[in-house]
TrEMBL record:
Keywords: Disulfide bond, Signal. GO terms for molecular function: enzyme inhibitor activity. Belongs to the PMEI family. The keyword Plastid does not apply. This is Pectinesterase inhibitor domain-containing protein. It comes from the Eukaryota. Residues 1-24 form the signal peptide. Residues 24-171 form the Pectinesterase inhibitor domain. It holds the Pfam family PMEI. Gene3D superfamilies: Invertase/pectin methylesterase inhibitor family protein. It comes from Hibiscus trionum.
Amino acid sequence: MSKIVSLLVVQAVFCFSFIPSTYADSALIKDVCKKTPYYDLCVSILETDPRSSISDVVGLAHIAAESVKAKAIAISNQIGASLGISNDPNLKTALNVCLNSYNTILRDNIPIVIEAIVRGDLMHAVSNAADAGNEAQICEESFRQNTIHPTNTIYVANQQLYALSVVLQFIASLMPVN
C-alpha cells in the first residue's frame, strides 16, 4: 500500500511541476499587449494574475486598472513616509504636489475607470486612465521644477505608474463598445 501511495505522490509532483507560472490565455494577452507602447510591462501584469486565465479584454482591463491602483497606493504610502522624514523644502514641495496627484488618482480616476469597465463605458474608462497618467506627469514635473534628482525612488516609481496607466488606457480602448 505504501508503494502505491509513494508512486501516486511522485506522479502528482511530476505532473504539477509542468504547470506554467502564468495564468492567462497567452495568445490573447500577447495580442492585447502588442497594441500598447509597453509590451513587456503589459504582459508581466496580465500573465501573473490568476484571473487572466478566464478573462476577455474587459477582464484584462480590470486587472490593469487594479494594477494601477495597487501601484498608486504603494507610491502614496511612500510619499507620506518621505514627507514625514524629509527636511529638504524643495523635496517636500514636490512630495506635496505628488501626494495631491496620487489622492486624485486613488479617489477619482481609478474608481471611475473600474466602474466604467464594469459598465462597458469605453469613453470614461479611457479618459480617466489618461487622467491618471496626467496626474503622474504632474508629479514628475514637480520633481523637475524643484530640482529633485531623477534617481529619487518616488520619481522612478511615478514613471512606472505613468507607464501602467498608459497600458490601462490602451487596453480599455480595446473593450467592446456598449
